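About this split. The held-out portion is used to measure sequence recovery: a designer receives only the structure tokens and must propose an amino acid at every position. Recovery is the fraction of positions where the proposal matches the reference. Here is one held-out target exactly as it appears in the evaluation file.
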């Protein structure tokens, strides 16, 4: 769905699925957030990245992490990528590290999840499908200090030697 909205959350323990807006480097970014009801403090965070042409809602509909998150007690974030000139303007990720604006976005999401849900910064994980998997490899190269583990599905390292930090 392309319907995006900004939600001001006053009682996060009662919310389980909502879209959050972020302004990162003067660019508006969005992410779909799923948190189990009454999530405890110091629980893990999983960031799940869509492939080319995708969005967070589509990734959620494919990955279905909610049942596992409810049982294992972790928060899941499905961020929306931006149009990328290198892939013909389709939505995706800066997996080759030209700017690493996506890394800055992920950091903003993590900071927000720490504030809202007191997630454990030592248990922040990232995974992705296709181009999201390529971005996951890039994160392994340049952001291993903020992610505890990385899983790529149908993605490969685009440029594992280029390291850019935001």
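Reference sequence for scoring:
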């Amino acid at each position: 769905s392309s319907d995006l909205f900004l939600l001001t959350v006053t009682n996060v323990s009662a919310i389980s699925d909502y879209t959050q807006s972020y302004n990162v480097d003067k660019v508006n970014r969005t992410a779909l957030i799923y948190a189990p009801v009454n999530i405890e403090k110091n629980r893990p965070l999983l960031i799940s990245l869509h492939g080319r042409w995708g969005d967070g809602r589509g990734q959620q509909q494919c990955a279905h992490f909610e049942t596992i998150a409810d049982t294992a007690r972790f928060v899941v974030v499905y961020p929306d990528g931006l149009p990328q000139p290198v892939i013909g303007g389709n939505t995706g990720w800066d997996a080759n590290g030209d700017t690493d604006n996506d890394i800055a976005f992920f950091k903003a999401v993590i900071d927000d999840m720490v504030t809202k849900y007191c997630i454990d910064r030592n248990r922040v994980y990232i995974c992705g499908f296709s181009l999201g998997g390529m971005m996951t490899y890039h994160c392994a190269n340049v952001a291993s200090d903020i992610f505890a583990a990385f899983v790529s599905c149908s993605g490969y390292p685009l440029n594992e030697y280029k390291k850019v930090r935001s």
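Annotator remark: Residues 101-117 form the longest helix (17 residues).
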